[in-house]
Amino acid sequence: MMAVYDLEEQEQISELKAWWAQYGNLVTTLAVVAALASVGWQAWQWYQNRNATEAGTLYYAVQQAAEKQEAQKARDAAGRLIGDYPSTAYAQLAALISAGAQFQAGELDNAQAQLEWAADKGQDPALRDLARLRLATVLLQKGELDAALARLQAVPASIYAARFADLRGDVLAAQGKAAEARSAYQAAIDALVSEGEQATTLREVVRVKLESLEG
Fold it and tell me: Burial letters for 91-118: b for 16+ Cβ neighbours within 10 Å, e otherwise?
């Protein structure tokens, strides 16, 4: 009986050797690929987590600098964030916050530069709209009326519709286009109706601007 078992065992070993000769390289390759994929995924996760941590640290620095009205520090930190982590939401938010600090400091060119990046290169559509709105405000302040109006032409997300129409009215009024400005202000008032009581103050402000043109 032992000889029979030995024979059967030898046949199984022979079959295993034959199978391994045919498929062994493939199995080894797949195992290596699986191992590399696992290591690669872990490395990618580590890289993403590290990037998120570093981006968050820079964003916090922008926030702190803006709160302290340190426009230069806000601009530098936002610039590093935009340069190193441009695809993150942190970069867009930092550009918006830093631009606000630049605007308050009277550094309109610096505010414009960071808002242009946020409006043209930012990943989030809603934040791009907000950047366009603020950029148009900066351009209006600088007296670049045609450029400001151009930034307001594309239809924004509905949440910003009234603000875009209101600012478009301001630019058109500054250009001396009273009829078009009135139309823009009316559009803003109409859009604000749907926002309820929280928009009451802005609605009254726009109404006063509209009435001043009608007078």
Answer: bbbbbbbbbbbbbebebbebbbbbbbbb
Rounded CA separation 90/124 (Å): 11
Q: Which of 114, 53, 61, 62 is nearest to 88 (CA)?
A: 53
Q: Is residue 197 part of a domain?
A: no
How many Cα atoms occupy the beta-carbon half-sphere of 199 within 13 Å? 18
**Amino acid (1-letter code) at residue 23:** Y
pLDDT in tens, 25-46: 544 444 444 544 454 445 435 4
Q: Could you give the residue ranges of the DSSP H alpha helices within 85-124?
A: 89-104, 108-121
Domain range enclosing 85: 28-123
- Is 105 part of any domain? yes
Please report the pLDDT score of residue 51 as a whole number.
59
Vertex 64: Cα angle to 60 and 68 (nearest 5): 170
- Number of domains comprising the chain: 1
In this structure, are residues 109 and 83 in contact, taking their beta carbons and an 8 Å threshold? no
